[in-house]
Write a structure and sequence with these properties.
48% of the residues lie in helices and 3% in strands. With 153 residues, the chain is an all-alpha fold. A two-stranded antiparallel ribbon has the order 1-2. The protein is globular.
Length: 153
């Protein structure tokens, strides 16, 4: 899977089902589950890289109001990860805008479910029954918040 196909999977998210993350993801899960195992793991690898690339203080400053602790903003690692997922889930154009200009970061929005899209596709492909081979993908990039040290002051 290349990045172009990655974005075609993302484009399958059904935003008419907003409010029901499983329903939003269903068309993408169905499509990805029909791919081979390597494509599913490559999807996850690309997702990790994209999330890593926008892991930075400039994006975090624009994700919404952060509480202050001792005069400094506190960025919840989980909340910022889920906000970055929202950026990716909204497609390539939104992602590129935020990458180029972190002020374009969507405010007070998240889409944690995107983290589990590859896992759900893997489960579906392999039957999802007890004893099925569990999806595990060790990625080159760590997408957890604060991993991209070059972008945190």
């Amino acid at each position: 899977m290349d990045e172009q196909e990655f974005w075609s999977v993302i484009d399958k998210l059904d935003w008419s089902e907003t409010g029901d993350d499983s329903a939003v993801m269903e068309p993408a899960v169905t499509y990805l589950a029909e791919k081979d195992d390597e494509d599913i793991t490559e999807f996850y690898e690309i997702l990790a890289r994209l999330l890593y690339q926008i892991d930075g203080e400039a994006s975090a400053e624009n994700m919404g109001d952060a509480p202050m602790i001792d005069g400094d903003p506190y960025y919840s690692p989980d909340a910022f990860l889920y906000a970055r997922c929202c950026v990716v889930a909204n497609g390539e154009a939104t992602y590129r805008e935020v990458l180029e200009d972190p002020a374009q970061m969507p405010r007070d929005m998240e889409f944690e479910s995107l983290l589990y899209l590859a896992d759900k596709a893997w489960e579906r492909k392999h039957g999802g029954e007890p004893g099925y081979e569990e999806f595990f993908c060790d990625t080159e990039y760590d997408f957890e918040t604060f991993s991209n040290e070059d972008q945190w002051g």
